[in-house]
Amino acid sequence: MSAPALEITELRKTYDNGVEALKSVSLSVNPGDFFALLGPNGAGKSTLIGVVSSLVNASAGSVKVFGVDIAKERSAAMRLLGLVPQEINFNMFETPFDILVNYAGFYGMPRAQALVRAEEELKAAQLWGKARVMSRTLSGGMKRRLMIARAMMTKPRLLILDEPTAGVDIEIRRGMWKTLKEVNAAGTTVILTTHYLEEAESLCRNLAIIDRGQIIEQGPMKMLLSKLDVEGFVLDIDGQLPGVLPQLEGIKLEASDDHTIQLEMPRSRDLNGVFAALDAAGIRVRSMRTQSNRLEELFVRLTGDNNKNPITAGAGA
Fold first, then answer.
1. Partners of 29 in beta bridges
2. pLDDT-derived band of residue 312, with 50, 70 and 90 as boundaries?
3. Yes or no: is domain 230-303 CATH 3.30.365.10?
4. If DSSP codes are grouped into helix, strand and coil, which group holds residue 172?
5. pLDDT tens string 226-244
6. CATH class given for the domain over 6-220
7. Which partner for 36 in 32, 139, 207, 259 could form a disulfide, CB atoms 3.0-4.6 Å apart?
8. Can you give the pTM of this predicted structure?
């Protein structure tokens, strides 16, 4: 059997000020996976990524990338890993082509090979037409794609992205989703830290939730979501809603505007009964869609902290 793409064993990190950021974290990511790491601010996500990428020294424990221990064979491990940080950190006065070629040089890649690789990655990122312009003239989405192209210059087997879509609009975010899906489909293992639950649910097959420096849950996305015994739906209504909605035992109906109802109900209940009650009240349902906040609900239940707003439950939040 091949080694895990990432294997973290009893990892601990205590900073000089006494803050224990990681408390015996263990985690395994399979080759080829698209994996989400979720958690609130201060949960330990950035520290964990920092240790894995060798930017932060661990206090105890081990990290292996495809079986290579980063503490014992740092250079070999780093050649297997690409990192896309949240902050845009390239020289805005260099061209995308030069940024990629210079980055490859840091890893000892011969210039002739780097020139070929830069063209390949810029074309893959749909940036070849901007290869020779100043990077500061690129749009926000182009800059984000350039960050991914730079990380892919060394053909990493594991790509880690630390909240890559933070602060960008919906159009840019969805464009990046397409890029990341293509990178993963080509065989690269991807680990994504994000505050956007819609993003994790759309892209990732497996996930881990970290809170207060500990992994509190991990496993397949579908398995974790199946633990929820409540389902949420959005109902679009023909015409205008009446002033009072039907009262149904164990079911929550709430008007979000004059033409939309938010519905929450136990998974064991039948939607036909809800539709019948709405129809009897003169409310005609035109369409229905699933709410996108299931992961937020799961997180709140797992942490048991209903006063916390841990993760953003939609692309625009």
1. 6
2. very low
3. no
4. helix
5. 776 677 889 999 988 888 8
6. alpha beta
7. 207
8. 0.77
